[in-house]
User: Fold this.
Amino acid sequence: MGITSHIGLNEWIDKMAKMCQPDNIVLVDGSKEQKAALTAEGCQTGEIQMLDQKVLPGCVYHRTAPNDVARVEHLTFICTPLKDDAGPTNNWMSPEEGYRKAGEYFKGSMKGRTMYVIPFSMGPVGSSFSKIGVELTDSIYVVLNMLIMTRVGDDVLEALGTAGDFTKCLHSKAQLDINKRLILHFPEDNTIWSVNSGYGGNVLLGKKCLALRIASHLARKEMWMAEHMLILGIEEPNGRIEYVAAAFPSACGKTNLAMLIPPEGLKSKGYRIWTVGDDIAWMRVDTDGRLWAINPENGFFGVAPGTNMKSNPSAVKTVQKNTIFTNVVLNPDGTVWWEDGDGEPAAEGALDWQGKPWKKGMTDADGKKIPGAHPNSRFTAPLDQCPSHSFRTEHHHGVPISAIIFGGRRAKLAPLVYEAFDWQHGVFIGATMASERTAAQVGALGEVRRDPMAMLPFCGYNMADYFEHWLRMGVRMRWQPKIFHVNWFRQDENGKFMWPGFGENLRILEWILARCRHDVDADKTAIGFVPKLKDIDMTGIKIEKETMQKLFEVKPDDWVKEMAGIKEFFATFGDRLPVSLAAQLEALGRRLEELGGKKM
Ligand code: GTP
Ligand code: SPV
Ligand code: MN
Assistant:
């Protein structure tokens, strides 16, 4: 009798254990007792530290290795038999090479350690939307994170039965050697191998690796969609809730929008916001012909710096208990702090994310401020602790999506909001979206990185085929969500954001919903429909009319330049690019010639 009643699973565990050679194997059952025991053990080995249990009950602290603080896109590979199936936007390795190379690093990597077996469900257990994975790992930190981010336990094994399909996820921190770090995906084998890292997206294999890279491959085969999107419900006073899904690249505001607080001026309208998810959406067309979405995750893995009671009060309230803090400042009293957080760090005795003595205002040899928390430091917190968490998150069928919103940081080009003419045009907008580097980042100012549907680092197959898949999904829907593009980041001549953003973004969501209900007209421009200014409710906020006009301005010359970049990007896909996207580009060119910056 093996560790579970699934023969294939047992055989795989045995095989991986032979390779990794752990001292023992422990099945994670999702129980409180086991979680407490693992937390105690993690504290003993120093892998984690207990925080002040009076102020932060159930909270622990963790530091990663200094060379292991973010996803490593250059060490992330899609291992398909044919290189072309990974496409020009992914790193590729053959499956043989991948298994051989990583196999060497895994050999004996768990000697003297325990191998934990984590059966987890992405999505509510038993839902037809959901997928089951099993992660083998030698890290208690990973186990504790997976217990928050996914649904773990015996009911998952029950749902898996004796022969069900599951994603085989193998992780070993090994020696945390950056020169031997590999994050490998074998879509054809439904397998993920991750070695020599201990950081978030590299090792919580249910998240980016399964729920996006592997899932996007499965979704194409099974005709559904796996997307890097938040999901949010907007309830009107009459009780009607409309749901939207939005794809923004990393650090472009998904968590913030998902937890939006209505601004003062709109409070009297009685809106209520429901957070369904902040990072990933799985979407299916149902028998009603509409697109329905679930959040496959069960927690938040959010950026800590910048999170405070003013910018995101819901996030602050979410992380008061049962939360794992990674790479933030540790105060001597067992509390935590990060840059642009609430309050002040301890004046004496604080330790920075590397465990070094640290004080606010400390500078390096060049006089530059030394941050106490790593800029990519994160909190891991249960979804249901968010004050605005949706009552629909446990619903096996998810929520119906009325609008899909793409967005990025564009200092100059893109209007605050515009609407696609139709689904195909919307796919073109998503396929060509991009984000600019700002002065706050290293790199050339204004440099554009194309990030289609915010999926550039997360699409598990050839992106040209992914575009085709989006087009085909549209055909399957009787009621297609309308597609929009937003840009909270347009700047004036002085480099200042013209739009206040955050809670005020509800004013734009309002317009988006009004368009979905066909309640308001819009102006047709070369790039899509833009709002008539009178249709944006500006109660309680003062922005000059001239600024508003600038926020919605479409400058034909800039768009002609943009088209050159798009053309170049499209060319990388050769003749695998769907014809209709090339046609969309041509049509944009024609409209720019005909209309210029004029409205029709
Ligand atoms: P990942 O977790 O990496 O996928 O990022 P995310 O997309 O969830 O981004 P997040 O919500 O953490 O926001 C990143 C940064 O964008 C924050 O530090 C905010 O300061 C900034 N931001 C978010 N929303 C707005 C907005 O409406 N306007 C402006 N100007 N900045 C915003
Ligand atoms: C992102 O980078 O988009 C994240 C963090 O959400 S990670 O889980 O590391 O991918
Ligand atoms: Mn993300």
Remarks:
- The longest strand covers residues 114-122.
